[in-house]
């Protein structure tokens, strides 16, 4: 089959790899000139298999307002909010208050994450990729005794689901992270031992190179306009090519991996994908004293900022902002990220010299990604991965390939079904 993959982010590239290995002809259509150049570019670099959870969490509802009101708080909203932002918030609240749904979705996401870890390790052993990656685990720091208490519950769930994790005392945290010499509050941490790190942008580009060697055609600088279909099947992808000409590319199947821009591609078929772009920010800077920087990756619950080591660089990331597709980078956001790093890893880098970035998490209001057959029999979706797309990419690529080939997927996909929002 000739399969077009729309979107060359980490999800599209991993999907293309699975499909070419199964003997299909694959064309990736990407409007940027590089793979992984949109949301997959400057993310927090965590492969956080044990952490995955839906944001539609009943307890989150009570945390959100104080976060919104606090000056350095992690949640921000453009005022007045757009209609799309208001709709997204109400939909999230509705899912958060659906009895039992959070627990079911969290377990479903953890199962997919477990599969993703296996698939990622297999992929990594098969190809020689350099992406500043590591397998040293991930720490969630507790800056209050209450945070430590909530980690005990998570630790129990992870153990039940087969993930290795440990509760650490502040002394043990400093043994694992000797560079953490700052005086930020610390009551301990939850160590997610099966998790890892890696530069998602580098990974996407390296894997795209491998895919090209395997025979995938990457068409960069092309904008997909629409899908040409009858009531049953998609016949072609209508695109504006790099010369600015409109063109139809004949296909046997299509996989939409277009992140935040996926909804517009399926809307003409009457499918509503309520993906909202949740904005975040990052800084990346070479470390001037690596011994004083993170050994792996930490989530600082005081500022809700993640600091990750990427080779000899530091990446720090934060904020959940509802501002539609606004790409501004206010200095105040970057200052909060700097403040968090400074409170944990003082002197590790010249934070004023950092490269800044903003990107949009393709969030669904209930939490799980959107994976499965779409509104035509040869139209598939692998999108809406929210804050865990790098983590889940390898597993999602594997299960969507199984769906396309009519095999039973390695993990149950019901919570991820594309049609669930209209039900
Ligand atoms: C601040 C921040 C921190 C994050 N941290 C983490 C983390 O630590 N771990 C983790 O797992 N995830 C993290 N994420 C989430 C993760 O980055 C995303 O889930 C992931 O990058 C989504 O990948 P994608 O391929 O679906 O989307 P994208 O990377 O956005 O790729 C979609 C591609 O489709 C292309 N496209 C769209 N429409 C068209 C069209 N019509 N024609 C042609 N091309 C098109 C776009 O140009 C784009 O390249 C974070 C996100 C943010 C914003």
Automatic annotation (TrEMBL):
Organism lineage: Bacteria, Pseudomonadati, Pseudomonadota, Gammaproteobacteria, Pseudomonadales
FAD dependent oxidoreductase domain residues: 3-402
Family the UniProt entry places it in: Belongs to the DadA oxidoreductase family.
PANTHER family attached to this UniProt entry: D-AMINO ACID DEHYDROGENASE, SARCOSINE DEHYDROGENASE-RELATED
Gene3D superfamilies to which the protein is assigned, alphabetical: D-Amino Acid Oxidase, subunit A, domain 2, FAD/NAD(P)-binding domain
UniProt keyword terms in alphabetical order: Oxidoreductase
One of the GO BP terms on file: D-alanine catabolic process
Protein name: D-amino-acid dehydrogenase
GO molecular function, one term: D-amino-acid dehydrogenase activity
Pfam families referenced in this protein's UniProt entry, alphabetically: DAO (PF01266)
Enzyme class: oxidoreductase
UniProt cross-references to SUPFAM superfamilies, sorted A to Z: FAD-linked reductases, C-terminal domain (SSF54373), FAD/NAD(P)-binding domain (SSF51905)
Species the sequence originates in: Marinobacter oulmenensis
Entry EC number(s): 1.4.99.-
One Gene Ontology term, aspect cellular component: plasma membrane
